[in-house]
Design goal:
Order of helices and strands: HEEEEEHEEHE
Largest sheet: 8 strands, mixed
Distance between the termini: 30 Å
Number of domains: 1
Number of strands: 8
Length: 166
């Protein structure tokens, strides 16, 4: 489990056992792949070649079509990355860092003498916000509900692959 936080009893207490359609409150097996389908606003969690959970209605950058190319373009990257660290003190309800930019992303930006940007995260909603922000609103990150972020925090270890598709 990530960072030693035990959320399962809290989730059950508040009746949060269903993430993206699964009626089970059972703990997830170790997640080895997070797959994001930007156009469908869907995140899938995979373990051992099996899809074990789906999160619907993810939120993306303000400019969600196309891959992230440059700092400030408000796009969410596309490609294969890793979850490489988590931040419990985030300005959002927890956050998991995505290893963007990779070598290809950096090389593309360098050809245009621009920065590729960075600090792309999966995170919950802004701290202090009751409920959920509307639409696509991030600067290129992937936002989920706070309850979904709790589940990701517990289930997705550092080093987990994340594939972000158009």
């Amino acid at each position: 489990m990530r960072r030693g936080i035990i959320l399962a009893p809290l989730l059950l207490l508040f009746g949060i056992g269903s993430f993206g359609g699964s009626a089970s409150a059972e703990p997830l097996p170790p997640i080895d792949l997070v797959r994001v389908h930007k156009a469908d606003r869907r995140m899938e969690l995979w373990s051992g070649g099996q899809r074990v959970r789906v999160i619907e209605h993810i939120q993306l950058g303000d400019q969600p079509i196309g891959p992230k190319r440059f700092e400030g373009d408000e796009r969410t990257p596309e490609g294969l990355y890793r979850i490489d660290w988590g931040n419990a003190q985030s300005a959002y309800h927890l956050s998991l860092h995505i290893s963007y930019p990779n070598e290809s992303d950096s090389a593309y930006a360098a050809r245009y003498d621009r920065s590729p940007g960075g600090m792309i995260m999966i995170h919950g909603q802004p701290n202090g916000l009751a409920g959920r922000a509307k639409g696509d609103w991030t600067d290129g990150c992937i936002a989920v509900s706070d309850a979904e972020m709790d589940m990701l925090w517990e289930s997705v270890a550092d080093g987990t692959a994340i594939e972000i598709l158009a």
